[in-house]
Design goal:
CATH topology of one domain in chain A: Rossmann fold
Distance between the termini of chain B: 37 Å
Number of helices of chain A: 17
Number of domains of chain B: 1
CATH topology of chain B: SH3 type barrels
Number of helices of chain B: 1
Strand order of the largest sheet of chain B: 3-2-1-4-5
Helix content of chain A: 25-40%
Oligomer: heterodimer
Shape of chain A: globular
CATH class of one domain in chain A: Alpha Beta
CATH superfamily of one domain in chain A: HypD, alpha/beta domain 1
Radius of gyration of chain B: 17 Å
Strand content of chain A: 15-25%
CATH architecture of chain B: Roll
Structural class of chain B: alpha+beta
CATH class of chain B: Mainly Beta
Strand order of the largest sheet of chain A: 2-1-7-8-9
Order of helices and strands of chain A: HEHHEHHEHEHEHEHHEHHEHEHEEHHH
Chain lengths: 382, 80
């Protein structure tokens, strides 16, 4: 398929790997964080790690919306879905995320809650129109890519005068999460997580543009290269980061110019600004409470805000004790450092959120890399 | 979650609507978040919405950049 196949060319990938190996200085260590789950998935799926020299290391970031959604938020969604007559519309990604007491949206659905998986926020509007006698709540999660579609849904609901539709808003912001990681003690003081540069988000950046990352380059002296989600995009971005670090530069560069501009998508940003405002604080799994890191629905559209409408109160709930998702999301640990990885916690029976979404660091490593950790032993036939 | 795919616009069946083709699969999506899309354009589709128009010239430029790294390696005297 056009614009996909040519960015997955194996021969070119080997050439790019050769260029990275040649340009990475052998005496130096390069620790690069891919913020997005989309990049984490590409790195695992295409074996990019195996193409890099040992001194170029990739650290997984927290850019997986399903992974960073705390237990308490899923509990609230289950609480909503359990109300008689209410329909909860949700992206399928959230269905298997573990909630309190071994529950999940999938289990709530099995118990009889009317939970419907939708592909698009427009589908949630359609359900509300088709069921005027029922209350319909759209469980909105995600970074800056899914936020504009939620804004459109709320504006459509207002235009249609849909009295039975509301949104449980859990939209979060990428720049706030990057700042939180750079400010974390592991990165800033302890130095236990060395971070030399970032691969910046692909599709989030189509909306917000490359401009918001300039602060990180200037203030924290870390280079950022925005990259597409195809394997060659990731390889090229790594090469560009190695070059910046070698030359002592810390700039925002854009590898994904075919879709990302400095300003981003003005129309989408205006729609988001019309409907949403900053939330004072929001809890992230792994990062804890992060100030001004999420959005809430403006007073003007309060009638579409499920939190106000149903008096939802947020209760923070601790993760399963055995689960290392929090440390993995901060880049402090790797999936294989977790005791339950691949044993108790698998994609079929996830204990932590990083094992749920295919973009989660644990799910990606489980699907594509778990046998690499096992030494191959040849046994002679008896 | 933020996954999105490039798809070709094959028809504009209504205001803010497009019919797209991804490897033979066709689907109606919303153009509410983008402007000035024409039939034949490639758009990046995410959860039923086009997020951006794909710039074919920039795509060519990026592919040329990959090829450049390859050419450098194959140049005489280069040690891969």
């Amino acid at each position: 398929m056009k614009y996909i196949d040519e960015f997955r060319d194996g021969a070119l990938a080997r050439h790019l790997a050769g260029a990275i190996a040649r340009e990475a200085e052998p005496t130096r260590h390069y620790s690069l964080m891919e913020f997005c789950g989309g990049h984490t998935h590409a790195i695992s799926r295409y074996g990019i790690k195996d193409l890099l020299p040992p001194n170029v290391e990739m650290v997984h970031g927290p850019g997986c919306p399903v992974c960073v959604l705390p237990v308490g938020r899923i509990d609230s969604a289950i609480e909503l879905a359990s109300r008689p007559g209410l329909i909860l519309a949700t992206y399928a990604d959230t269905m298997r995320v573990p909630a309190s007491k071994g529950s999940s949206l999938l289990k709530a659905k099995a118990r009889g809650a009317d939970i419907r998986m939708v592909y698009s926020s427009a589908d949630a509007i359609r359900i509300a129109r088709d069921n005027p006698e029922r209350e319909v709540v759209f469980f909105a999660i995600g970074f800056e890519t899914t936020t504009p579609p939620t804004a459109v849904a709320i504006l459509d609901a207002a235009a249609l005068g849909l009295g039975n539709f509301s949104v449980f808003c859990n939209h979060v912001l990428t720049p706030a999460a990057i700042a939180n990681i750079l400010e974390s003690p592991e990165v800033r003081d302890l130095g236990t997580v060395p971070l030399d540069g970032f691969i910046g988000p692909a599709h989030v950046s189509t909306v917000i543009g490359s401009q918001p990352y300039e602060y990180f380059a200037e203030e924290y002296g870390r280079p950022v290269v925005i990259a597409g989600f195809e394997p060659l995009d990731v390889m090229q971005a790594i090469l560009m980061l190695v070059r910046q670090l070698n030359e002592g530069r810390a700039e925002v560069e854009n590898e994904f110019t075919r879709a990302v501009t400095r300003e981003g998508n003005g129309k989408a940003k205006a729609l988001v600004a019309e409907v949403f405002e900053l939330r004072r604080s929001f809890e992230w799994r792994g990062l804890g409470e992060v100030p001004y890191s999420a959005l809430q629905i403006k007073e003007k559209y309060r009638r579409f805000d499920a939190e106000a409408r149903y008096g939802l109160e947020y209760r923070s709930v601790a993760d399963n004790k055995a689960c290392e998702c929090g440390a993995i999301l901060r880049g402090v640990k790797k999936p294989i450092d977790c005791k339950v990885f691949g044993t108790v916690c698998t994609p079929e029976n996830p204990i932590g959120s990083c094992m749920v979404s295919s973009e989660g660091a644990c799910a990606a490593h489980y699907s594509y890399g778990r046998f690499k950790d096992v030494p191959v032993i040849a046994v002679a036939a008896p | 979650m933020c996954l999105a795919i490039p798809a070709r616009v094959v028809a504009l069946p209504g205001p803010d609507a497009a019919l797209i083709d991804i490897g033979g699969v066709r689907k109606r999506i919303s153009l509410a978040l983008v402007e000035g899309i024409a039939v034949g354009d490639y758009v990046i589709v995410h959860a039923g919405y086009a997020l951006a128009r794909l710039d074919p010239e920039e795509a060519e430029r990026t592919l040329a950049l990959f090829a450049e790294a390859a050419a450098l390696l194959e140049a005489p005297g280069a040690t891969p």
